[in-house]
Specification:
The protein is mainly α. 87% of the residues lie in helices and 0% in strands. It starts with 5 loop residues before the first helix and ends with a helix.
Length: 92
Amino acid sequence: MKVLSQGQVIDIAQEALFTILKLCAPMLGLGLVVGLIVAIFQATTQIHEQTLVFVPKILAVIVAIIIFGPWMLNLIVDFTNQLYGSIGTLIQ
């Protein structure tokens, strides 16, 4: 049985981290935009209600999951298929 080299392990880990970043980007982006809008609204109206911060962010993340869900599923399935497909070349 062949042991993976450090370079191969680093390449796999790097690709996994990049895939995770691509998966999280739509949800984090919408949450950030909604948080910024709510913060501007709170600063202008001087309403500092805590639920006004969390509820819109949660709803934005849920909307992002609904909208980008199929793309995110395809991305993770492609990564998994690529990883499983490369097992034969990594072990030889």
